[in-house]
Design a protein that fits this description.
By secondary structure, this protein is α/β, with parallel strands linked by helices. Helix content is 40%, strand content 19%. Bound molecules: iron/sulfur cluster.
Amino acid sequence: MKYLTEYRDRHATERLAEKIRTVVTQPWVLMEVCGGQTHSIVKNALEQLLPASVQLVHGPGCPVCVTAAEILDQAIALAQRPDVILCSFGDMLRVPGSQQSLQAVKATGADVRMLYSPMDALAIARANPQRKVVFLAVGFETTGPATALALAQARQWRLNNFFVLLSHFLVPPAISTIVEGLNNRVQGFLAPGHVCAVTGIEPYQQLVARYRVPMVITGFEPVDILQGILCCVAQLERGEARVENPYRRVANDQGNARAQSLVNDVFEVSDQHWRGIGSIANSGLRLSPSYQMFNAVALLDTALPAASPSECISGDILQGIKKPKQCPHFGHRCRPEHPLGAPMVSSEGACAAYFNYQ
Ligand code: SF4
């Protein structure tokens, strides 16, 4: 059965690639927004199935890549306190801050724990009432509801030793920044299907109305990505710009109303700093006033200095201006075992995808 499914997928992939070659008459540059899509494209060598005139560039949708070095510095400062247990997702432990990583301070004795869900951090807090448990919460619209759920639960349980260090991002304002950038060359977007499963497609309709660029809601399997590319280039060839959703089996147009309501209750929209890109207005989440008692920043004694500039050119990579192999450090000074920048660490990072699969 497994082989039959693989055979069908390969057949569908080849048919879609053939259709794309038939439709395309001129050069187009498309951006896949999500790092998961980037990995699928590079791992399955999908670019080699496309006509040379269709270029894919990689977007900012990797939460580990865009979390600011300053947030990591704050997490490291908290982790070094003996009364703190610092918890986060696995990839975050290896990302360099301005000086070192959470993994490095763990090796010196700090209590840094990897977890798979924010709810695990609540369990650790309940089991360690004498310690402060700080969850470094990162992600896009997809992980926001899980962090919100943990916070709502912590409030219901009246936990007073659970805190969050927030680094949550919103995708549409980052797309605006890319389209408005002086160096922008992206003409159509493969929008992140899993994000739309939460938010619905309305934020992307607003982007289309504002910028007149096609937005195709796209999944992660090779057939999903080629279907997204086909829809996108077909729109461009016809001179159209609209939201198209061929990923309806996962993302309906309205999104998940319960998740949206939970996020709106716990968070409010704020400006956010994106690593390598800079500050983007209204592109992040902060705790709403009724959840401020869980704010881990209040535990920090003093403000930390701003992180110094890095040699990593992740900002150009994440905005589709350059590709990983155009970075002078790629594969030399920067490798997964000693990364200079976050895109070489994350399982969704573009540099890691090129290093591992090409
Ligand atoms: S190869 Fe390394 S230094 Fe260069 S952009 Fe990627 S992560 Fe940054």
